[in-house]
User: Fold this.
Amino acid sequence: MWWTRFGTATRMALLEHLRNRLAMWLVALYVPIWLTLAYTIVGNMPVRFYLRATDQTVLAQGNELTQISGALNAVTQIVGFMMFTVTFKSSTFDRRLAMAGYPRGHLLAAKVVALVLVSAVLSCYATAITWCFWHPQQPLLLAVSVFTDALTYGALGVMLGALLRGELEGMFLIVMISIIDISLQNPIPNPAADSDFLRVLPSYGAMQSATTAGFSTVTPVAHLLLQLSWCALLTCMGLLAFLRRTRDQNRGGRVSTTAGVPAT
Assistant:
């Protein structure tokens, strides 16, 4: 039955994440250490900046603002890394399953479910750590903002895992894209963080809504929808790349029985 195959594929995807020891160590140590350092080392000097999501000039504490960007940066990197690693390492096995008749739709749905669960857990985890240091005005909105950004980078990880041929290249790209994306939007290192150019960055909607969650009572619906649009776009691209990677190797849709047999 379809639900049995889907359940099996989902269980396999989640087990692959749990077996990723490096990712588990990053979750256990990197996230709390980085958020603690962001709050305790960065000075609590006031930072005045223009927040487009509220169309207002906001006055925020520097360490609180850095902790918000740090939460986005840490969670996106980890989720992107986890989805890339699982997709990359299981690509050969997934292709064999598909060629043996296992429905690719079930494999795709299992990856989506795993991405949603991992993103939800890490988003709540990062928000809870932030709450231990200071109280954002809208903690639920903060968690949702981090969650949508995690989905975006997780989908990016799936796409890179299906397209790239080397593991190091994928991890490097995810880390560098996340660092550039978030750092340019932080008004502390970048006084021009309200530049129109930044609207094209993949985490722009999440950064705007997360900052709003910390220092305002406004609900930035438009920016949440913008982030969901990025998520949907990269998810479609990731799923298409996965379908391309797991498709049959010949036009007839069947495995060649003469592959690898020397000519006589």
Notes: The CA atoms of residues 71 and 231 lie 18 Å apart. The beta strands are 46-51, 56-61. The longest helix spans residues 104-133.
